[in-house]
Amino acid sequence: MRMISAIGVFFWLVLLRSPWAAVESQVYHIAMEGMAPYYTPAWAKVQTGDAIQWDNRTATAHTATHDDCLNSEDCAFDSDVVSPGNSFVLSSLQPGMYSYYCRLHPIMRGVVTVTEATVKGG
Q1: Residue 42: which of 87, 88, 94, 102 has the closest Cα?
Q2: How far is CA 89 from CA 25, 39, 50, 113, in A?
Q3: How far apart are CA 26 and CA 45, in angstroms?
Q4: What distances in angstroms separate CA 12 from CA 57, 117, 118, one per listed residue?
Q5: Overall average pLDDT of the 67-96 stretch
Q6: Is the pLDDT of residue 13 over 70?
Q7: Contact in structure between 65 and 103 (CB atoms under 8 Å)
Q8: In the chain, what are the domains?
Q9: pLDDT score for 4
Q10: What is the model's pTM?
C-alpha cells in the first residue's frame, strides 16, 4: 500500500511540473458597493479559467447581469438577485469583453475583460 502511495505522489509531482498543468486559476473578487463606482473594480481583467466572484457589501440586493441578456440569446451571465452579504460566483468566461449592470439599479455598471490564460514555466 505504501508503494502505491509513493507512486501516486511521484506522478502528482510530475504533473505539477508539466507545462500543461502550470496554468494557475484563481478567484477574482468584485465588490458590489453602495457608492460610485458601484462595482469595485469597475474594470476587471481576468484570465480564462479564473472564477469571478461578486460580493454584495451593501444593505440592498443587486445583480450582475451581462448587457447581452437584455435583447439577445448571447447572455453570458446573470446572477439573479444577490442578497446583502451574499455572493455570486461565475466559474469562468470565454475570452472577450463583457459589459454588465445591476438590473435593480441600472446606474451600476462594470466591465470584465477575459484574456487567454498565460502558462507559467514548468
Answers
A1: 102
A2: 14, 15, 11, 16
A3: 12
A4: 39, 22, 21
A5: 94
A6: no
A7: yes
A8: 24-115 (2.60.40.420)
A9: 45
A10: 0.77
Question: Is residue 93 within 8 Å of residue 48, measured between CB atoms?
Answer: yes
Peptide bond into 106 cis (omega under 30): no
Number of residues that make up the chain? 122
**28 contacts: CB under 8 Å, gap ≥ 6:** 44, 46, 50, 51, 52, 53
State the pLDDT confidence band at 23, using cuts at 50, 70 and 90.
low
| Cell numbers representing residue 7 in the block | 507512486
Whether the CB-CB separation of 62 and 85 falls below 8 Å is answered with: no
Pairing of strands 43-47, 51-56: unpaired
Amino acid, single-letter form, for residue 102:
C
CA distances (Å), origin 39, targets 10, 34, 82: 44, 9, 13
Task: Work out the number of other CB atoms within 10 angstroms of the CB of residue 94.
Answer: 9
How does DSSP assign the chain, residue by residue? -HHHHHHHHHHHHHHHHSGGG-PPP-EEEEEE-SSTTSEESSEEEEETT-EEEEEE-SSS-B--EEGGGTTSS----B---B-TT-EEEE----SEEEEEE-SS-TT-EEEEEEEPPPPPP-
